[in-house]
Sequence to fold (286 residues):
Amino acid sequence: MRLTSYTNYALRTLMYATLAHPRLVRVQDVADAYGISRTHLVKCVHHLGMWGYLINQRGRNGGFRLARAPEAISVAEIVRHTEEGFGTPACGEADTVVLRLVEAVQQAQAAFLSVLEGYTIADITANAADLRCVLGLDVGRAA
Amino acid sequence: MRLTSYTNYALRTLMYATLAHPRLVRVQDVADAYGISRTHLVKCVHHLGMWGYLINQRGRNGGFRLARAPEAISVAEIVRHTEEGFGTPACGEADTVVLRLVEAVQQAQAAFLSVLEGYTIADITANAADLRCVLGLDVGRAA
Fold:
């Protein structure tokens, strides 16, 4: 019962875009900052764009930025987009045998998401000074 | 954010033992009933024995049975045993960068488990008549 790498990458990308704002961010910046494979991030940034969280600007000096205020993006809505299998047990089965178990797990998942409704991207980047330093975003700020 | 196959197997094994009670259950019975690989179940049954949920009886007519009343086993305690990564993001990292995110996810996981504290193995097998029929346990009962 842990979040997938994909969710992790999506949240980190949004955090990075929040901290770099209003500067345009390149996928390579995010890959370097977190030590994540660029290949995985490309798909993630594409999806975040499709879902309306990032604006992609094409071209030689292109990149992406947040499409909404980080205060207006809950962690829960990202998790709903990125995590599969909400409401189903691991096997994907939903027959009589696991009916009560599925109900229990669905209720537990709702409680999980309910907590994450209370956190926005702004909240999880609230320690912005520390984060900018760790992610090497201080230099850009000062410039 | 879904439960692993391992958790699923553990819960199903406990459900089966509950429904078959007081009869001894063999790993092969559980494998046949759910169409799960025997190999996966052997490990699972071994662990459930170690954690004190099953009593294993060796020998030619051996098998296992529940070590406690199903009303006394919460789904949450099984999930705590079987699921890894509670309290950590997918990458296993716990540094400054994801500090607030880890806190949010930990709180969400606590809420998830809190709901499952409210369900016991007896609760998820409460539709016992249906389950015994689907799992082919009716015959044994009648005999």
Remarks:
- Residues 90-94 of chain A have pLDDT under 50 and may be disordered.
